[in-house]
Specification:
The structure holds two protein chains of two kinds. Chain A has two domains: 6-109 and 241-272, D-Maltodextrin-Binding Protein, domain 2 (3-Layer(aba) Sandwich), CATH 3.40.190; 113-237, D-Maltodextrin-Binding Protein, domain 2 (3-Layer(aba) Sandwich), CATH 3.40.190. In chain A, 40% of the residues lie in helices and 21% in strands. Chain A has ten helices and twelve strands. The mean pLDDT of chain A is 87. Chain B folds into two domains: 1-55; 56-447, Porin (Beta Barrel). Mean pLDDT of chain B is 87; it is low at 366-370. In chain B, a hairpin with a 5-residue loop joins β12 and β13 (290-303). The longest helix of chain B is centred in the first third of the chain and has 53 residues, at 2-54. In chain B, strands 1-2-3-4-5-6-7-8-9-12-13-14-15-16-17-20 form a 16-stranded antiparallel β-barrel. A two-stranded antiparallel ribbon of chain B has the order 18-19. The chains are: A alpha/beta, B mainly beta.
């Protein structure tokens, strides 16, 4: 080591430092990818922000939380939208690729809504009953007070954050193999609308024109529908934060955009679009 | 008039019959289509069920194609520059049910087809904190477990390559990795003799069966790490690991690394191989991300000899004190580029210093001639520099240069390597000098 020229090394390090400044220039185009639950809100944010910031282009696409986080790790997006927290394995990949721990921004709250067909006699279920239904342990509506009909399950693909959150917090095991996976919450809602014996889950923002199932923690608890009030008061039992993930601390236009999302103006759109504000 | 009524009546009858016929046809058509739809739905359900089984299988992998130029003259006359496929790996992961995973990873590199990983992991479903792994898998060490596809320098540090040859071992591992708690513990039991050559007096490798242990001693390895979050700045991971193992003695003598202490041993005795290490990884979100990582490992390693037979001179067991460390500095330059610098040092024998190596005094007590100090006792330091460009999601291009420095023998001509170049020019490398062993690597990695 003695024979290495330390002065030359120091100069090289300084040059590389200067290059890193140059590379760190903030972009005018912001790409956002990920959660399908969050996509309609993210599109609305982008649309409204671009109206007053015409120099910035914001491109929003869905695909699911897992897809968004993978894109963030691969450098294919600036912001990954996720309806679940980053997994430890994903954090390790981010560390390996960017040498950072990533930045997590909670941007909205959501209640995972359980959808039922309006013709269904069942109007409320406990977390355990929901878990058993989606595990395939309960297979007939009569077992939970409904008609003598086989239960039809509709859910999301495993790249979806909603799929993961619902599995970890409600199903607590493997989904039944009979659960039909659909690409997006809108597709789940449509399927349940058409199927009198159907049951599905998804974000609260998609619940128009469908029966919302009341959910209770256990048989002794009171059942609640997902609403601004029950989510704010932590009464509705399947509540979660929605996140935006970045590889580095935001700077430039990305920082301005995130600050705007968290401002009163951005959070007003959260409510307008059927989600719940973080503050 | 009557005729007109008759015609009208006939027409009405025909029309009504036709309508009834159409109704019957429409109703039949609906029933038929309904049946077809039900059939299709049934097929979709079957296909979905089959597809859900397929989604349990994940296939990933990577390939590293590279060109390397070695500056060491000793590599001639074979080749000191060549193209090679360093890795051609496909990893199959099958998640049978929640918490049960099988992993199979062969390496298809030309001339080196090998099964790298083959293990099953059972995760505890209740607390989700414990898991048991059994099969062939990476030994629990930071640089060993850090995939070659992610590593910032082309090869692992010298000390890691020396003490964990082949990186993998066959055994079982218990992991404690509680959710929402930044601690991670690993406890592993291995055969422990993986990738070691243990020759008998005839020169045959007694440890050639990769799927079987060479002896009855099992090696134990433990590692604990803790992840400390440093607010918006980044995070610090730190930890320690220990290795406690033995190899069965095939000789009646064991030399210690000072070459003066000679211990008698029985055939079948366990010769200890044990060491400990401390590690840290600092990640900082500064100007696009940087990290500083390091590890220091020291302890006793051992190699196994054999007893003299007939005219064959025996070789004593050898137990050497060693030490080594590495220090990385990695800086991301925007999203697409990364610069890495690593200094690593490995001294395979800390009991004997450069100037004393191969001095006859150190061999004076050696009754078994091969146990003299020599080139294998020399320390090596390497300064590695690498620049990576991430071409897209799957491709990484790396240009790296390793500057290797050797510890020098004190007396000129005491330790030499003779060689002949392709042009027939004879040369000698005298290890009392600095020998040029630098390596340039240009690598393209494709990952999927």
């Amino acid at each position: 080591m003695k024979s290495f020229n330390l002065v030359k090394l120091a100069i090289a390090a300084m040059v590389l430092g200067a290059i890193s400044f140059a590379f760190a220039a903030a972009p005018q185009k912001i790409t956002v990818k990920g959660s399908d639950t969050l996509v309609i809100l993210a599109q609305k944010w982008a649309e409204e922000y671009m109206k007053t910031n015409s120099a910035v282009t914001i491109q929003v696409t869905g695909g699911g939380s897992g897809v968004g986080i993978s894109a963030l790790i691969n450098g294919a997006t600036d912001i990954a939208n996720a309806s679940r927290k980053m997994k430890p394995t994903e954090k390790e990949k981010l560390k390996a690729r960017y040498n950072t721990l990533g930045v997590e921004v909670a941007c909205a709250k959501d209640g995972i809504t359980v959808y039922l067909n309006p013709a269904n006699k069942v109007k409320e279920l406990s977390i355990k009953q929901l878990g058993d239904i989606f595990k395939g342990t309960i297979t007939n509506w009569k077992e939970v007070g409904g008609a003598d009909q086989a239960i039809k399950l509709y859910g999301r693909e495993n790249s979806s954050g909603t799929y993961v959150f619902f599995q970890e917090n409600v199903v607590k095991g493997d989904y039944a193999t009979s659960c039909q996976t659909l690409p997006g919450t809108a597709a789940v809602v449509n399927a349940v609308k058409k199927d009198p014996n159907g049951i599905g889950y998804g974000g609260a923002a998609y619940s128009e024109g469908i029966e919302i199932c009341k959910v209770k923690i256990d048989d002794k608890s009171q059942a609640y529908k997902a609403s601004a009030e029950t989510i704010k008061n932590n009464q509705y039992p399947i509540t979660r934060y929605l996140y935006m993930y970045l590889a580095n601390r935001p700077t430039g236009e990305i920082k301005k955009y995130i600050d705007w999302i968290l401002s009163a103006e951005g959070q007003k759109l959260v409510v307008e679009m059927g989600y719940f504000p973080v503050k | 008039m009557k005729f007109h009524f008759l015609i009208l009546g006939i027409l009405l009858i025909v029309l009504s019959l036709n309508l009834r016929g159409q109704e019957v046809i429409t109703s039949d058509k609906i029933t038929e289509m309904n049946e077809q739809l039900n059939g299709l739905l049934e097929r979709v359900a079957t296909n979905e069920s089959d597809l859900s089984k397929l989604t349990k299988i994940k296939i990933s992998g990577y390939m590293q194609a590279q060109y390397q130029k070695f500056e060491s003259p000793a590599l001639l006359p074979t080749s000191n520059n060549y193209f090679a496929l360093r890795r051609v790996r496909v990893k199959f992961t099958y998640e049978a049910t929640d918490g049960v995973k099988f992993v199979l990873q062969p390496d298809f590199a030309p001339g080196a087809l090998a099964l790298k990983d083959a293990y099953v992991i059972l995760n505890d479903r209740w607390t989700k904190a414990f898991s048991i792994t059994m099969g062939k898998f990476n030994r629990p060490n930071y640089e060993v477990e850090y995939s070659s596809s992610q590593r910032e320098l082309p090869e692992r540090s010298s000390v890691i390559r020396a003490i964990y040859p082949g990186e993998r071992a066959i055994g079982a591992k218990l992991e404690f990795n509680p959710q929402n708690t930044p601690i991670h513990m690993q406890l592993a039991v291995f055969n422990g003799s993986e990738d070691l050559k243990i020759n008998n007096s005839a020169g045959s490798n007694l440890n050639s069966n990769e799927n079987k242990d060479y002896d009855n001693f099992k090696d134990v390895m433990a590692r604990v790490t803790y992840n400390l979050r440093l607010g918006n700045f980044g995070g610090l991971d730190f930890g320690a690991h220990g290795y406690f193992g033995k190899l069965k003695s095939m000789a009646t003598t064991t030399y210690l690394s000072d070459y003066t202490t000679v211990k008698s041993a029985n055939i079948g005795d366990g010769i200890a191989r044990s060491w400990g290490g401390a590690e840290f990884q600092l990640f900082a979100d500064v100007l696009g991300g940087l990290s500083v990582k390091g590890e220091y490992i020291a302890g006793k390693n051992a190699s196994i000899g054999f007893t003299p037979s007939g005219t064959t001179l025996g070789v004593a067991n050898f137990q050497n004190k060693f030490a080594g460390y590495y220090l990385y500095f990695i800086k991301n330059l925007g999203k697409k580029n990364q610069f890495a610098l690593r200094y690593d040092y490995y001294d395979p024998n800390t009991d004997i210093k450069d100037k004393d190596i191969a001095i006859s005094g150190y061999a004076a007590t050696a009754t078994l001639a091969k146990k003299m100090s020599g080139k294998s006792d020399l320390a090596t330091s390497t300064l590695g520099l690498a620049f990576h460009h991430y071409f897209d999601d799957n491709l990484r291009i790396t240009l790296a240069y390793d500057i290797v420095q050797n510890e020098k023998v004190g007396t000129s001509g005491k330790v030499v390597d003779n060689y002949t170049t392709a042009a027939g020019v004879a040369g000698t490398m005298d290890w009392s000098n600095a020998i040029n062993q630098n390596v340039m690597t240009l690598r393209i990695q494709a990952k999927f």
